[in-house]
Amino acid sequence: MPTIVGVRLRNAAKVLWFDPAGNEPAVHDRVIVRTERGEEIGEVAEASHEVESSALRAPLKPVLRVATAHDLEKASALTEREGDAMKVYREVVKKHGLDMKPTEVEFLFDGSKAVLYFVAEERVDFRELVKELSSRLDTRVDMRQIGVRDEARMVGGLGHCGEQLCCVRFGGEFQPVSIRMAKEQDLPLNPLKISGLCGRLMCCLRYEYDAYKDFKGRAPKRGAMIETPVGDAKVVDLNTPREMVTLSLPEGGGQVKLPLEALECGKGAGCPCRVNAEAFEAARAPALPSAFAAAARDEQASAPAAEPAPSRSRKRRERKPGGDRSSEKSAPKQEQKAAASPPEKQAEQAKPQAPSGRRRRRRRSSGGGGGGGAGAPGV
Q: Is 162 left (phi over 0), alpha (psi -120 to 50) or beta?
């Protein structure tokens, strides 16, 4: 049986098999391999092991060597060069006015070629673009059109859950995802909530689809009537991860949660249409204290409200008659000030004050007759 080693290359959808060629790389080691495009650097994902000959679809390419310190320095220099090339790539695309979105630039390890990735809705004629890029990058250019999902995998990011994108974290080939998977999991059919950064349906919709489908195939549907020791109950909710069924009991008996295994068939048709009495009592027992607490709350709410205590301002108004203490204290002080003032000032204060001019004008205007008021017309 042939011996293989699994290597994950950059922008590769899955782990590729190579011939170790006498090398013994460990997992997570960096290795230099030969591919159809040329020499590339990758990371070992599977250690050397034997496989069946029937599992090989094509002859294996060799692993040239385990990456040395010099190889790692060269790889880091190529990464810096790719950043500069990306700026040139965007500048030239904008200059030619092409309807395409530059995504990434990748230099092969041997420097023989640069692979330029882009996203476009339609076919693009980039012959003049390739000529100018080849002259400015001083290497052979290979243009590669990709889809929006591949773009999200290359760029990376965080999903709605706050974790790294599934296409980046788990890799692998893209599997078809349909809107039926979202319906089966009772998710809101809002494109903003079930779509990923790429604008397509999220890959994670496929992960739990089989579990939801299996549970709903064994559980009763919402709205179904189930036989219980206290009468027929209605299914109001299903909890797939915990495989729990919520029943609404008759005559205001509240709700009770039961495991799916507590339901059995009472008609001999294999359908979950009846609840086991022991499981029903065990599931209903924890709900009794909450019912007593609800009754206590209702009784407390129906009791007459206690009369509120009088406020401080009300207490002040209800004091015994005898005048305000503050006014009593201030009166002697005013008399002392008046006695201490000179006689001339006391005489002026004793004189009656003449009415103001405004009041005199108002009295003249309010008198009867035709005449001399401010608002009367001139003769």
A: left
